[in-house]
Write a structure and sequence with these properties.
Number of strands: 9
CATH class: Mainly Beta
CATH architecture: Sandwich
Largest sheet: 4 strands, mixed
CATH superfamily: HesB-like domain
Helix content: 10-25%
Length: 107
């Protein structure tokens, strides 16, 4: 199983961790919500648990819990700037449909 982090996303994660002064990487997951079923969750990873998988790329770690891993298999995490907005984007080969607002997806 793999999770790909672009260099741009890795640079943002590294910078955010340095500013916060805490955390070991990015924690990525999914939660049940929205009209299509699932939404991504993004937070600082403070530690690696027994049920976590760790992916390292471009010098940063991405931590994913066991329940979320099947939904994130093969996902590419990028970080983009669109005008005044900045955010992570996810290119997920498992997604079958998204809701109209783009906040949730189904697999």
């Amino acid at each position: 199983m793999s999770i790909e982090v672009t260099e741009r996303a890795a640079n943002h994660i590294r910078s955010a961790l340095q500013r916060s002064g805490a955390g070991i990487g990015l924690r990525l997951g999914v939660k049940t919500t929205g009209c299509s079923g699932f939404a991504y969750t993004v937070d600082y990873a403070e530690a690696v648990g027994d049920s976590d998988s760790v992916f390292e790329q471009h010098g940063v770690q991405v931590v994913v819990d066991r329940k979320s891993l099947p939904f994130l298999e093969g996902v590419q995490v990028d970080y983009v700037r669109e005008g005044l907005n900045e955010h992570f984007t996810f290119s997920n080969p498992n997604v079958k449909d998204t809701c109209g607002c783009g906040e949730s997806f189904s697999v």
